Amino acid sequence: MLSWDDLMRACRATKVAETQEQMSDLMGKRPSYVRSLKARGKQPSVDSMAQLHTRLTELEDEFRDLIVFGFDASESRKVAHRMVAEFRDGVFRDITARCRKGGAK
Hints:
Blueprint: H1 4-14, H2 20-26, H3 33-39, H4 46-68, H5 75-100
Helix pairs in contact: 1-5, 4-5
């Protein structure tokens, strides 16, 4: 299961969120969501992880379009595209593992 630190590190590395408030927004939650759950030692809900997966998929699609249609085919854009896709895939694996364990809350 992805830890909060794993999620935040990936958000910062891909530049999709720099703060816990921004990550909360990516998960479709109120600004204090990440901070509150993290302080209580709780993991994000499967619903919020699914929302994060959806937002990462949208971002990955935007990056791909920029590359494919030649608006920004720079190496840094290609690296960012791969990083977001890998982050999205990791979130999907986490959701799948949690659902298999019956942790879909």
